[in-house]
Amino acid sequence: CSILKNGTFAMVATTTASSYETLVSYSNTFQIPIVSPSFPYHTRLRPAKYGISMRPNYLQAILDLIQHYRWKQIVYIYDSDAGLLKLQNLYKLTTNEYKLEIIKVRRVISASEANKFLVNYDNETRDQLKHVVIDCEANLTREIIIKHIMDEFANNPAMEFGAVNITGFRLVQNNSRAYEEVFTEKSRHQWPDPKTKRITSEAALMYDGTRVMLGAFKQLLNEYPAIFAKNFRRGEVYNNNTRGIDCKREKIMPWEHGNEIFHRLRNVSG
């Protein structure tokens, strides 16, 4: 409430399963747009009416890939609370013409745990072809794949690395102009590992969200240069002649420009 009282035009924030409810409750009540790298997967319980999630919904892409390869059975490995919800949605996306069977499901917290699970399952079904969907954070996924391949190769030196076929989805386009801009800016500051030209998907989505926010306000001010003229008085922000946004007042007074800002956010291009 103290932040809103000082005047909040819009929010850019990461949202977790624990923080989502609080942030979206304020956003919906006071019509304050919020841009987040990604929303948790339980958002259907409290949809963000003024929210923009930068992460695309990739579940249909996973199902399309499974159907493309004509997989009938899969093993599903995940690492977050959203995993089971996404799995349920995968079931819902299947049709009468295409039924998908989930043979094994496992939540993991480390590459070692995932590898142990895969080794045990492989020993149970040694002569069968396995299709494994790993729905984990990128670094953990990389560790799982490398550890499993290296362990298999160590136990069976005759095995060829080509025995494992991997298909993945990439959010960060490392040949894009925006990507190069990030590392041009990065070189000017002290980063943990300046020699590593890598950025996490979460950081990339936050960068995109910030660009969307700046683009929306630039578009709005170009079209209506004086739109916020009445909101600034003696160094303070006013909303409908009231200082800031008072979330403690009995009669709720939403942010007067919330709908217009949200409309611009939804229509930012490039």
UniProtKB/TrEMBL annotation:
Origin species: Tropilaelaps mercedesae
SUPFAM superfamilies xrefs: Periplasmic binding protein-like I (SSF53822)
Name of the protein this chain belongs to: Glutamate receptor 1-like
Alphabetized UniProt keyword annotations: Membrane, Receptor, Transmembrane, Transmembrane helix
Superkingdom of origin: Eukaryota
Keyword Transmembrane attributed: yes
Cellular component annotations (GO), alphabetically ordered: membrane
InterPro entries documented for this protein: ANF_lig-bd_rcpt, Peripla_BP_I
Receptor ligand binding region domain sequence ranges: 3-269
Signal peptide region: none
Keyword Transmembrane helix: yes
Subcellular location: Membrane
Alphabetized Pfam families for the sequence: ANF_receptor
